[in-house]
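@channel anyone free to eyeball this complex?
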Amino acid sequence: MKALRRPPWVLTVLATIGAALFVLPLVGLLGVTPWSDLTSLLADDVVVEALRLSLITSVAAAVCATVLGVPLAWILSRIDFRGRSLLRAIVTLPMVLPPVVAGAALLFALGRRGVVGEPLADATGLVLPFSTWGVIIANTFVAMPFLVITVEGALSSLDGRHEQAAASLGASPLVVFWRVTLPMIKPSLWAGIVLAWARALGEFGATITFAGNLQGRTQTLPLAVFVSLDSNRDAAIAISLLMVVVSIAVLVVLRGRWWGRTS
Amino acid sequence: MRPCEVGSTLHYVYRRMARIATALASAAVVILSVTACGGSDSDESVLVLAAASLSDAFATMETEFEAANPRLDVEISFGGSSALQVQVEEGAPADVVAFADTAQINALVEGGFVGSPTVFATNSLVLVTPAGNPGGVVSLDDLADPDLLVGVCAPQVPCGRYASELLDQAGVEASLDTEEPDVRSLAAKVAAGELDAGLVYGTDVDAFPGELAVVPLPDGVDVRAEYPIAVVTESSVTDNADRFIDFVNSAEGQSILADAGFGER
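replying in thread with the prediction:
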């Protein structure tokens, strides 16, 4: 390839504005951070409990998304059935849907008066809204699509010969899936899990709508930021900074190649 | 895992998201161009930031004020008073603020963000259950029952502060299940039967007709909310802002508020 000429100025200007849109809020956040009080702010009960709850619920959601999402991705990519395109569209819907709508929909389905929630509560006494389980379900709902489309993409572009070879040697379909298919898509699987986990960590709208907001039970980090922003802004800023650090750590792991590339 | 492989997977994800985004963007362009053609012919607009509990009353207020002032376009953004306070402090281009508590507006007055406020309405806090009272709530003391699902507003918003004041007055240690960020989301969750009881404003009962039942409070337990309104100092249309506030305080404005269940000043 020829050495790159000077980039067209139009692209440079637009790209600079685009980059500024991402950089400026970060600069703003760093600018108002109360650095000297940071440790005491982060040691506050509200923050510690929200962090604990966020880690538990986001990891649980990532696990649920993996256990349920990998089989779903496999079905979507390998089995030809009527309504497959429709199912694929429905599975990716939460990526486009406003999370508040997702939360309301979950409430209508799984709430105490919901289509599924009411019989469930009558039979088992289990009420999902306003519980930590509710947070995990809301998180799984919004996070799983990231795992499904990542894994499905990997499965679709997989060379089928290894699976055929294993099958011809007598391995059952489940063994092929477990011993051949899964190991071959491992990088994508990890990417999907991390994406889903990150999405769950940042979940706000569906959580506050479906699971409410109570310290120690359903108040995750984003909810703590939201309610603290009004009354205790320094705490909100400290939590925001914590979330930025966690998010950047995830992206560094995922996009390592971007940082390493110098051409 | 190798970063390169992860990167290519991400590209697949991004490509798919990009396709969805492109579809949405073209839909948005169509909608925008349609609305641009049918845009309003108003000359000036007034942006009002109002407490969530004013949702219904101020929606009517907007319609009536615009009918009386055809050249003016009123836009109202509803939210928790404390969230609106932050928006004003961070320079939201608002002209009028109307809150559910004097604390937030006093903070804005001290900071020089708004002019001197006037109280234009009052409201009372009530104990509500879903219609039919499935949880069997008969008194404020029942809020201490851990088996009932009980909600209040977050302590940061006025209705949450009033709720803790009310519970203090009655000496009740409530077993809470959620602290909602604004009163309307709390009232909606009680109305939907997802909560057994909640402390909301009297006006919210009118906003969910037939869906909420009121449980009487003990004698002597009474919390009155005062609603202040003020002009934002940085507003470029202060005369219009004044005109809106005058309308709210006029006989017509006051009767709209009374219809929505607000008390007198």
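from a first look: Chain A is about 75% helix and 0% strand.
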